[in-house]
Amino acid sequence: MIIIYLIEQQWYRITIKTFWSIYQKSKTFWGKIFKALATITSRVHQLQDSAQVENVILLIDQLLEQVHDSMDLEKFSEEKRIQAYQKTRNLLVISINTTESTLASAISDLALVNEVIEQTLASLDNVNQRLEMLQQSRDDRFTICEQEAQDYQDSRSQRQ
């Protein structure tokens, strides 16, 4: 079915399918209005009074204009939401990059600390080995001194 209406001395045709697609895309408030208009326009061919047809056409034009304005507002709102999302995303990316950099630095510092710990442990092992050797040397000297003292005491007791 085709709806014919006059705008600025020119006839335009809109199919019910076009109206229905607008109706499907619109929100609940506009949906009821479009449904009523679709019903009215589907019966336009039955109307003989041109004033009624003209009123329907004007109403449709106003409605289409309001839908266009509403879609523009919705588009503007969506663009603002996308801009806010992009701004937040960019800040998060910067934060993630900073965190990754800090983490890499911390891992590097941890590797250096591990190297220092390994060197300190190696040095400690070295010191412990030297201490053991000194203790063994001391024990050996003590044993030798005791043996010498015993020998001296034995030799003295034999002389007496």
Explain this structure to me?
The chain is built from 3 helices and 2 strands. With 160 residues, it is mainly alpha-helical. 3% of the residues are buried. The protein starts with a strand and ends with a helix. The longest helix is centred in the middle third of the chain and has 110 residues. The chain is rod-shaped. The protein has a domain of 78 residues. The protein has a two-stranded antiparallel sheet with strand order 1-2.
Write a concise keyword list for the protein shown above:
160 residues; mainly alpha; two-stranded antiparallel ribbon; rod-shaped
Concise summary:
With 160 residues, the protein is mostly helical.
What class do helices, strands and sheet pairing give? mainly alpha
Helix and strand pattern: EEHHH
* Strand portion: 5-15%
Largest sheet: 2 strands, antiparallel
- Write down the overall geometry: rod-shaped
Mean pLDDT: 78
